Amino acid sequence: MNATDYVKQVLAERGQVRQVYWVACGGSVIDLYPAHCLLGATSTSIESGIFTAAEFNTFPPAKLGEGSLVVTCSHSGGTPETLAACELAKERGAYVIGMTNRAGTAIDSGSWPCWVYEWEDDTPQAERPAAFSLAVAAELMSAQDGYEGGALLSAEVEKLDAIIREAIPRVERDLGPRFVETCRKHDFFYVLGSGPTFCQTYGFAICSLMEMQWQHCSYVSSAEYFHGPFECTEDGVFYFLQKGAGANRAMDERAERFLEGHTDTYMVLDSAAYGMDEIDESVRSYLDPIFFYEMNVALRGVRGRAFDHDPDVRRYMGIEKY
User: Fold this and answer.
1) pLDDT in tens, 13-54
2) Coil, strand or helix: which one is 271?
3) Triad 187, 31, 40: Cα angle to 5°
4) DSSP secondary structure string for all residues of 133-162
5) What radius of gyration do the chain's Cα atoms show?
6) Is the model's pTM score more than 0.85?
C-alpha cells in the first residue's frame, strides 16, 4: 500500500479529517515535521499539530477524537511512548496510522494500519517516512481542499536521490575536514536553521551529534537567534548554519550576515549550493529537510571516523533502564 491507499481508507471510514496529529520521538518525529509544515501552511480544512509522544500523552489535544488522524512512527517498532500515544488516540476515537522499519513489532500488531518501510543505504527517498508523510498530507489536501500539488511534489521527491548522491562526497570534501578540526577545538557549539529545515537543525544537534557522537551542542532557530541567543555571539564561539534554499532562506541569510561580522568561527551548509535550487520553488522548503538529513549523516560519519567514534555506539540508550 502507498500513501494514497492509506488516505482512501481513512476517508472511506471517517468521511472527513479535521485534525492531523503527527506523533513520535527523536529522529522519528523529525521525519514527520515537513508534512506538518506543508499541511499547516496549505490546508484550509485540516488543522495540523506535531508532538513528541510523551508530551502528546501528557497533554493530549482537546480536539483529539473521531475527526482526527494520528500519524505515528517508531523506527524500532517498540518505542513505549509512541505505542502509548497510539493507544490513547485509538481510545479517543481517532484513526491511527503507524510507521516502522520492523514488521511484526508492537506498532505493527494489527491494532491499526501500519506502513512498514525499508531503511537501507539504497532505499529511495520516496520510500522513506519523510516522503511518505508528505504524500499523506498531499493526498488529504487533494481530497478535501482540491490541492493540485501532489503530482509535482512526488516528481520533485524523485529528484532527491540524484541530488543527494552527488552532494554527499562534495559536502564531505568541502566541509568535512574543517568540521572535524572545529569540533576538536570546541567542546560546544550551536546549530542554526529555520522553517521546515529546523527539524534537521534539531536533529543534527540531538541525534547525530549528542546521541551518536557525544558532542555537546545546542540548536537555535535562525529567526529566534535575534531574540536573545545572538548576544552570545563572539569570536571563538562556533556556529554551524544550515542555510535553506526555500522560503525560509531570508531568515538564514540574516543570521549569516550577523555571524560574518561578529564571530570568526562559523560554517555554512547551503543546500542551494549542492543542488536543491533544482527543486521546484513551491515545494523546495518541504524537501530541504530530507537533503539536510543526509548531509548530517555524512558529516557525523566524517567526525566519527576522525574521532574513532562509531555512530552506533551508545552509553545509555537501550542499555540502562530509564
Assistant:
1) 999 999 999 999 999 999 999 999 999 999 999 999 999 999
2) helix
3) 115
4) HHHHHHHHHHHHH----HHHHHHHHHHHHH
5) 20
6) yes
